[in-house]
Amino acid sequence: MERLFSRSELLRIALTHKSASLQQNNERFEFLGDAVIELAVRYSLVKDNRDASEGDLTRMKIDLVRKATLARCADRLNLRENIVTGPGLRVDNISDSVAADAYEAVVGAMFEDSGFEKSFELVRETLLDHEQSDHTADPKTMLQEYCQARKIPLPEYRTELTAGPPHALVFDISVIVNGKVLGTGRATSKKTSQEIAASAALLTLEGEGINGLHAK
Length: 216
Hints:
By secondary structure, the chain is mostly helical. The protein contains eight helices and three strands, in the order H-H-H-H-H-H-H-E-E-E-H. 52% of the residues lie in helices and 11% in strands.
């Protein structure tokens, strides 16, 4: 890994958890790497899925950048065992979340060291060439995993209206996260209505980010 960097100290910082140093840790590189990975994934998905809708692209993107996926990328680079930790965090018990953060930080450090082309190549070789996203995956599961990965309150589904004759009922359902309605769905079954609402919520999260969810 070190041979890929012209400035090895950047890799060292990228692998330093905040428990080891409050002053010089990987949080800033993690912030940068998150954006680099996001752009690389978006670009690749748009280029490789020309007939996919915006909703499909969003679901594929969320699946590719979730913590569990990025943790696998970290393991492909053997980052987990090389993370520098401090008291209270055992190096032999690194969580997927910490490993994923380290991967983002390494990508950010690569961007700082060599620019976007090299960091994009790293993302392609460790993430895009290995992971496949199924855009037909259950939107409710994807929304729940999205919230869990970002420590957002789990979604709640609320039936707003049931209308029509008994043999052809229509359900209006909204999905709520932290007191905010993020999406709505209408269908002839509750399950389908919830899935439509979850898909809409994923699109809302894509535009709103998690910061807006903390303000009720």
